[in-house]
Amino acid sequence: MLDEIKEQIAAATREAELLQNYSDYLENAAKSKNDNYKLLILDENMKMWVAIEASMKSPKNSMSQEIKDNLTKLSKYVEQITITHGVNMTENYYKSLAEINRQISQGLMESVSTNLAQQEAYFLAKCALDMSEAHKANNKEEFVEALDKNQRLWVMIKTLMVGNKTNLPQDIKDNLIKLADYVSKNTIKLGQDLDNVDQKMLDSFININRQISEGLIRNA
User: What's the count of helices (H) and strands (E) in the chain, helices before strands?
Assistant: First the structure.
């Protein structure tokens, strides 16, 4: 599941960057006197929106139906304007298409950030529960597995914070990075002696996950 989250983030980031790029291309095309260049940009921009429209129908798309419907309508609008006016469209039409791209790019990253926070909150809480239950049941195999999943989750969180993939305030990002380093440093210690697990450290892992989970939900 963590790999699926990473792929969703990567895909959304690629789409947002592509939309932003074509926003810039359209603004340049609006000022250009080269019809071949204009045609190329308009055609590529429309193809991008056709692909976006197609992705709205994918069962793997986790966006709300309202967002899917709105993006589909925007795709139809882009196609209609492009086909109807072509390279002869006014500068205002170019700017309108560019602004659509820019707003959707920003909205997409905000949506990804919110969805990501919700998923992270769920997995942090789940890892806390798994570690607690496995330890109470004295199931060493499941406990080690829970520790591993928790560590991989925190590695992913640190990667996202360092790569600025969320719109969280910088002080929160810095705190999450520090917590990720703490978890990575001490996970090995927790798993070294499964017959004498450091209860204080385990409790700190569980409490960190629960507190951050609650915080992410509040700020999502």
Answer: 7, 0
